[in-house]
Design goal:
Blueprint: H1 2-19, E1 25-29, H2 37-48, E2 53-57, H3 68-79, H4 89-96, E3 99-103, H5 113-122, E4 129-131, E5 137-139, E6 145-151, H6 163-173, E7 178-184, H7 194-203
Parallel strand pairs: 1-2, 1-3, 3-6, 6-7
Antiparallel strand pairs: 4-5
Bound molecules: flavin mononucleotide.
């Protein structure tokens, strides 16, 4: 029986994969500050990558409130396989992208809430993932690679509530195989040589 779900996942993944043939990088930008150090790292990576880059400036986007009406409408659309509804635009775009880059500063042990709002919009059953009969998710996304860039003010920056969550979601739900973290920490510590820390991390960045 599990085999049947594998085939469904394969077909749905194939349909998604065929939607957009041009190699496309999706840049999910949660860096709100004009002089963002996280964005600086992302820019270094993006210059190394091939293909057109589509940027989503999360702080500039209006996400719908995920209330009961929203959930009812979404369930109805999913049950009727109406995946072309605008409600799923972001999820379809994510699923069809060849490579994902997320830039998010380290905020309050995690990341800015706009990134969580975005992730809520792209976790769509039948578009970015499907469940097997045992409840195990299988990814439907085209991307093989996701890079998560972050910078932190201090050196105490456990990663499980920010990067760790995105890593688990990307691997287990979206089926993205290669997840990479690029991090510069300790930037706001008094006396820190910010340029030295940033340059050292930038030197390790290759697309
Ligand atoms: C709202 C907010 C929350 C932050 N929370 C933390 C934190 O929990 N731990 C930490 O080390 N730095 C924290 N910082 C500092 C930032 O991580 C640091 O300045 C980072 O480099 C900002 O990224 P940016 O230059 O890309 O904006 C916080 C900064 C802001 C504005």
């Amino acid at each position: 029986m599990d085999g049947l779900y594998d085939i469904i996942a394969l077909i749905l993944g194939f349909i998604t994969k065929e939607e957009d043939k041009e190699y496309m990088v999706l840049f999910i930008n949660a860096c709100v500050r004009q002089d963002s150090r996280t964005k600086r790292l992302a820019d270094k990576l993006l210059t190394d990558l091939q293909g057109p880059v589509t940027e989503l400036r999360l702080w500039d986007m209006e996400f719908p409130v995920v209330d009961e009406d929203f959930l009812k409408k979404r369930d109805q659309l999913i049950n009727n396989e109406m995946f072309s509804d605008p409600m799923f635009d972001l999820a379809r775009q994510f699923a069809a992208s060849d490579e994902i880059v997320i830039a998010a500063p380290y905020w309050d042990l995690s990341f800015p809430s706009s990134l969580k709002q975005y992730l809520e919009q792209i976790c769509v059953l039948g578009v970015t993932f499907i469940y097997g009969p045992d409840g195990t998710p299988k990814g439907l996304c085209r991307a093989k690679k996701l890079t998560y860039l972050t910078t932190a003010g201090g050196n105490f920056c456990p990663l499980e509530f920010g990067y760790g969550y995105v890593e688990a979601l990307s691997k287990m739900f979206f089926g993205i195989e290669e997840i990479r973290l690029i991090k510069a920490a300790g930037l706001d510590i008094v006396g820190a040589d910010v340029e030295e820390i940033m340059s050292a991390v930038e030197a390790e960045i290759h697309g």
